[in-house]
């Protein structure tokens, strides 16, 4: 650990793909906690596709990052100097410290973690926002019934991997779509999906390969990517299909609107497309807590982490995330995790 | 009445817009009812946009019409020769006799009408399929809350007119979109909508004119038309907007898929688009029967009929319907309605 607070600031707004020049890496003094606050060092930083939206000027669904401010993000931190009655030195918390190695907090929104219960980093993946996203979208919007076919794009990712495993636990055929043989092999052999289509290898045969993997059509399409995958999937929806619309990562860097499917396809199939953002539903996660942590503990839901070391490497890792270069939940290890020694 | 059965058959499948050459008008013998059947003369024939889909070869959501068969359609008929124990001569029924002046039925799907309760033709508009479509889409999918803004396209039509009036009855701001000043005046002055945008006059200002009519954004968009209206409305959806997707009349004649909105617009707003077809829900219309007929009787829901005389004029009227030429529910009067004398 350095004796300064290393922070990644938003320097300029990307036009299209973000580049390293959009970020500023600065060293600042380590802040002092006031009365009722604590100082924490960041252990884990989560990198997620939604951050692309926060870099934009255009109105998104949450407050965007101001130029010169640190990038926002979910973190696991360890309290190192507490002047807050609810937190003591050594406590681990899941919070939103952003892209910086130290932060001061009044505790709002911070959740204490029990390092005995699960690895700390899981609070940023399967037991945190991505896991809740998967559960909410699949169970509350997708409403899968045993015997139905669930297709999920970005299937090896933090959200998609949980979607497919939950679908299997509920008796569905789970079909992933992912980029590259390695990811597809992982999705089928490690996670237990019934099939996985490699959209990069498929090229112009994407529609046919999805059809072969989902021969009875698609009842639930969990949408993470948009673009060419969306165009190939939507015509294969079954009557009364549900489409939890979670993300459109292939379109986040696009400067212009890009066309979606002809709504005649949705009308004829009486399909439902529902955009959702998990933070709207954090207060209603009883079902998630009941179902997912025990399944993780029992090994029925597996997860994979893609770890980058050092906060100074966050920009490049994030740029890669938008291109699908990560394999598993992308995390930055900002400082030592004493529970992993 | 002629002494033969005048029938309109599907002669060929339209490529793009239907033309009179796609139809064959033939005279056939009046059929004889067998035991357990009745012969009825068609009084009213309903012309509806969905019929365009039935003319196509491509798989739609219901069985398409075979070449050489009569066009399908909802009708009000009078029994003139019954050999069915449940129907007697003189009874009026709502049935699906199609585009012909006489039909024989075994009574399946026929509903007896009480001519004292409402005009017979209302069974084909506000008290029939179009009214149920409006009610189901608005109330079950749109779920309007008092104070919200409901926008409906094809606002002067059989469905749209009921949508807006129901929205008003539920305390919403009702904004119509229709083609031409006459229709817009009717929607506002007769039906009591708060505003109506004339999409034909608006041209390139359509987005702005809709914004002016719905200054707080759009909570429910009842979609009947697609195309340019859809493109102008979707970016104005509010957070958690609901879109009952009922029809896309502007696209029915298109041979190619046409692009829909970028799904980023749905994601950011957490909007829900739900395609629906009323016939899936006929068994679940208790709420409709409770709400709509009394409102019609009390004059709180008004309706307008656009009547064409003679079944031989049905093809031209139907072609005009797809271009928005009708003004109100389009009906063909096939034979005398004794209750209207």
Quick summary of this structure?
The structure is a homodimer of 341-residue chains. The first copy, chain A, is an alpha/beta fold and 341 residues long.
Write the layout of secondary structure elements.
The structure is a homodimer of 341-residue chains.
Chain A: E1 5-10, E2 23-28, E3 38-46, H1 51-54, E4 75-82, E5 92-95, E6 102-105, E7 111-113, H2 129-142, E8 149-153, H3 160-169, E9 173-178, H4 181-190, E10 195-198, H5 199-202, H6 206-213, E11 218-222, H7 227-233, E12 237-245, H8 263-269, E13 272-275, H9 286-297, E14 305-309, H10 314-321, E15 329-333
Parallel strand pairs in A: 8-9, 8-11, 9-10, 11-12, 12-13, 14-15
Antiparallel strand pairs in A: 1-2, 3-4, 3-6, 3-15, 4-5, 5-7
């Amino acid at each position: 650990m350095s004796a300064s607070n290393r922070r990644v600031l938003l320097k300029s707004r990307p036009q299209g793909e973000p580049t390293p020049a959009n970020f500023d890496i600065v060293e600042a003094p380590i802040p002092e906690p006031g009365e009722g606050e604590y100082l924490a060092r960041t252990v884990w930083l989560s990198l997620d596709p939604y951050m692309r939206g926060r870099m934009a000027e255009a109105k998104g669904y949450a407050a965007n990052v101001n130029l010169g401010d640190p990038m926002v993000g979910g973190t696991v931190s360890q309290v190192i100097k507490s002047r807050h009655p609810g937190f003591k030195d050594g406590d681990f918390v899941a919070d939103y410290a952003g892209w910086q190695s130290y932060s001061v907090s009044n505790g709002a929104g911070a959740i204490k973690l029990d390092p005995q219960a699960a690895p700390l980093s899981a609070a940023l993946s399967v037991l945190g926002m991505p896991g809740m996203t998967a559960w909410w979208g699949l169970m509350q919007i997708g409403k899968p019934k045993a015997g139905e076919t669930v297709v999920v794009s970005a299937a090896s990712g933090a959200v998609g991997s949980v979607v497919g495993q939950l679908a299997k636990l509920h008796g569905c055929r789970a079909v992933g779509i992912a980029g590259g043989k390695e990811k597809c092999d992982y999705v089928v052999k490690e996670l237990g999906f019934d099939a996985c289509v490699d959209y990069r290898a498929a090229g112009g045969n994407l529609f046919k390969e999805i059809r072969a993997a989902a021969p009875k059509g698609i009842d639930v399409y969990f949408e993470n990517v948009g673009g060419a995958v969306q165009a190939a999937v939507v015509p294969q929806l079954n009557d009364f299909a549900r489409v939890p619309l979670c993300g459109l990562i292939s379109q986040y860097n696009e400067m212009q609107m890009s066309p979606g499917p002809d709504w005649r396809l949705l009308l004829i199939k009486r399909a439902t497309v529902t955009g959702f953002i998990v933070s709207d539903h954090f207060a209603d996660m009883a079902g998630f807590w009941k179902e997912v942590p025990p399944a993780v503990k029992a090994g029925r839901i597996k997860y994979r982490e893609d770890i980058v070391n050092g906060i100074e490497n966050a920009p490049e890792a994030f740029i890669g995330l938008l291109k699908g270069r990560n394999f598993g939940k992308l995390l930055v290890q900002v400082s030592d995790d004493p529970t992993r020694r």
